[in-house]
Amino acid sequence: MLARRIYHDPWDAMREFHTQLDRMFSPHTDGETDTVANWVPPIDIHEAEDAYEVSADLPGVDPKDIEISLEGGVLSIQGAREAESKDDGHGYSRTERFYGSFFRRFMLPDTADSENISARTDHGVLKLRVPKKAKVLPKKITVEG
Question: Percentages helix, strand, coil for the chain, rounded to the nearest 5?
Fold first, then answer.
């Protein structure tokens, strides 16, 4: 009798957790209850002196398929990566890349200047720059007497 190997990906549980969180906190429209995202792109957020910098790994995603919106201080990034169709008759021996829709959402701090956010892609990485507001100095009020 041949022994069967079962492979377990320890990150499956984390991906499922992210999917469930996205589903919980994402609004559904028209009674739609389908999964919000098929995959979750990894994102780095860095705070510089004058801005917040967000980088999202989106290889293979056409920039026209990325939608970025800001509502109520919440920055949302969503889009889709189309599956590659290969019909060479050989099939795949392993597929690890995710296809379909993705969705990420972040609450911006009060210091973010939401009017001047910029976005660009560079070699499959979406780069957002969220400038910080100019610091407001405290105003001194004189008391008349």
Answer: 15, 35, 50
Q: What is the model's pTM?
A: 0.64
pLDDT, residue 71, reads: 92
**How many CB atoms within 10 Å of residue 113?**
15
Cα-based distances in Å from 140 to 2, 111, 131, 145: 82, 22, 27, 16
| SS3 labels along 37-98 | CCECCCEEEEECCCEEEEEEECCCCCHHHEEEEEECCEEEEEEEECCCCCCCCCCCCCCCCC
- Read off the pLDDT of each residue in 78-85 and give the average, rounded to a whole number: 83
Give the pLDDT confidence score for residue 30 in this predicted structure.
Answer: 40
Which pair of structure tokens corresponds to residue 58?
A: 């989106």
Q: What is residue 143's three-state secondary structure?
A: coil
Distance CA 33, CA 109 (A): 30
In angstroms, the CA 55 to CA 63 distance is: 14
Residue that wins the pLDDT comparison between 42 and 22: 42
